[in-house]
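Protein modeling request. Please complete all fields; requests missing the sequence field cannot be processed.
Requester role: graduate student
Desired output: 3D structure, token encoding
Chains: 1
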Amino acid sequence: GARPGCGGAVMIPVETHLVDARSAEWTAAPQRVSPRTTRSPMSFTPGEFVRGVALAPAFTLALVPISAAVFMPLATKAAPQIPTLEQIGLLLGSGLLYALFAVPWAIAATIGSGAPLAYLLGCALRHRPSIREHLLAFAALGGAVGLATVIVVGMSIAPQAADSPIEYAMGLSIWFVPPSIVGVALAWWLTATLALRTDARQARAVRS
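Delivered output (208 residues):
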């Protein structure tokens, strides 16, 4: 999984010599050394880890409105209808409220628990080359962190009229947990894909 260090290759700059066709002089060009080795094929640099951590809440927040649009009709059993101007305005207002409320909580959850747990999980899986294993593991991590966050937030904002704060929180989980599962897995997949493509591109450059 995406995380810095964890016993991976030491980042030591090396030089490859290129021939200037005009002057036939040797010049040196610094090359990035990949932390991925035969022993640790899924080791990542600190920069790659940070990118994955930043992408996870971004993908999750982007997917929440889609999740709400899918699950709200199922929860309310409402018949589909053309939205009125009043409903559209309410939706836009709800979207602004969602952004102001959800973004800080998502950032806090990522920094407080998501990133440390992702680091530990990535360290544990750095020797495992299977993309599928990593995706399943990070999807599970996203679900666990998402559910824990929704329970904490939901219970703290549950209205007094609610029969049970925990039931209120669990009702919110259907909107937020699926996006968290997909968002974290997607963030890992994109981070790993970009890193592996960079390795392949540099390997081709060295061979040529």
